[in-house]
């Protein structure tokens, strides 16, 4: 089913939040409100992605999107080894073993692309980079609308040259991973409302605003700054259909500050500040997904304990506005507030 952003009843997109927060039920709920729901294929195998696509198709007959992580070159093995040694006492304290060897991981990229060509979906978006020209052309020929996530005007130029149909402009206020196209890049700090016109100056593609949008006035400001639609992520984390853990939901109202850190995955990501970030963030190397795999046992142990001092708790700067209840109602209410 072909889709155009201008044809959405509500110009609101549910952010693809990898790691379990985005569910087929959440995507369908955003669709019922008149927006565009998304599935997050990051960290999933191609068959697992296909299962979620099948599930969302049973829940909605409206267009939906699937987000892919673009693989990066291997990180610095020596830097990862040094970080392992720094984390080892913490692992011993919690009686977990850190992986001594980390195999190459392309997030099943090739298999996912093959699956999306064999059974096309309405929208595909990319995080951490862009597809190759032949890959983008193949999906375009299959009728899929493609969205490149960008954090700078330079990335926007590259995305347009790669054949993207629209751009998700991610400001520094966004929760979770910054979508820089290179792992080692220092993420920009230009606020979303200034980043949008900076990107508009280099492209005519439709822009989707992402980052720190938690209420009606913020949505209005983003649309006035040049966005054709807005993307909500943290705002949906506490809704009924979210897959976020109970501890993560609770932390959104308990921990007051967010910070960008490489401590958990090696890529810069905004999350609720806690002691783990303070202890290890300055020493984490720009190596992804190696650091992600290295810290996985520690993060799993913290999650089992519900230990907010050591969990990775992705959240944007408007996290204190996230509320509970049905996602469809939340999206409807936010859009109504934006229209008032």
From TrEMBL:
Superkingdom of the organism of origin: Bacteria
Homology family: Belongs to the nitronate monooxygenase family. NMO class I subfamily.
GO MF, one annotated term: nucleotide binding
Reaction catalyzed: 3 propionate 3-nitronate + 3 O2 + H2O = 3 3-oxopropanoate + 2 nitrate + nitrite + H2O2 + 3 H(+)
Pfam families registered for this protein in UniProt: NMO
PANTHER family the UniProt entry points to: NITRONATE MONOOXYGENASE-RELATED (PTHR42747)
InterPro entries reported for this sequence: Aldolase_TIM, NMO
Species: Streptomyces rubellomurinus (strain ATCC 31215)
Cofactor(s) this protein requires: FMN
Coiled coil: none
UniProt keyword list: Detoxification, Dioxygenase, Flavoprotein, FMN, Monooxygenase, Nucleotide-binding, Oxidoreductase
Name by which UniProt lists this protein: Probable nitronate monooxygenase
GO biological process: response to toxic substance
Role description: Nitronate monooxygenase that uses molecular oxygen to catalyze the oxidative denitrification of alkyl nitronates. Acts on propionate 3-nitronate (P3N), the presumed physiological substrate. Probably functions in the detoxification of P3N, a metabolic poison produced by plants and fungi as a defense mechanism.
């Amino acid at each position: 089913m072909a889709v155009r952003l201008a044809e959405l009843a509500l110009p609101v997109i549910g952010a693809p939040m990898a790691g379990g927060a985005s569910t087929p039920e959440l995507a369908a709920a955003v669709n019922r409100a008149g927006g565009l729901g998304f599935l997050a294929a990051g960290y999933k195998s191609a068959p697992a992605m296909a299962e979620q696509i099948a599930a969302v198709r049973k829940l909605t007959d409206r267009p939906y999107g699937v987000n892919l992580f673009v693989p990066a070159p291997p990180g610095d093995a020596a830097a990862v080894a040094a970080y392992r040694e720094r984390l080892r006492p913490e692992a011993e304290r919690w009686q977990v073993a850190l992986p001594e060897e980390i195999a190459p991981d392309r997030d099943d990229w090739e298999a996912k692309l093959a699956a999306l060509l064999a059974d096309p979906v309405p929208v595909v978006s990319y995080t951490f980079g862009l597809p190759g020209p032949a890959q983008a052309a193949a999906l375009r020929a299959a009728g899929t609308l493609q969205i490149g996530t960008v954090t700078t005007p330079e990335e926007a130029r590259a995305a347009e040259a790669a054949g993207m149909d629209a751009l998700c402009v991610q400001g520094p206020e966004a929760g979770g991973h910054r979508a820089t196209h290179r792992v080692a890049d220092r993420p920009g700090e230009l606020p979303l409302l200034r980043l949008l016109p900076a990107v508009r100056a280099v492209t005519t593609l439709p822009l989707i605003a992402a980052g720190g949008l938690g209420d009606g006035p913020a949505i209005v400001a983003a649309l006035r700054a040049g966005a054709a639609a807005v993307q909500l992520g943290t705002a949906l984390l506490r809704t009924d259909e979210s897959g976020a853990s109970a501890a993560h939901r609770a932390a959104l109202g308990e921990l007051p500050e967010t910070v960008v850190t490489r401590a958990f995955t090696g890529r810069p990501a905004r999350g609720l500040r806690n002691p783990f970030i303070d202890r290890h963030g300055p020493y984490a190397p720009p190596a992804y997904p190696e650091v992600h795999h290295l810290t996985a046992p520690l993060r799993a142990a913290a999650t089992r304990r519900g230990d907010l001092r050591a969990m990775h708790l992705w959240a944007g700067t408007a996290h204190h506005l996230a509320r509970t209840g049905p996602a469809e109602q939340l999206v409807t209410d936010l859009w109504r507030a934006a229209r008032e």
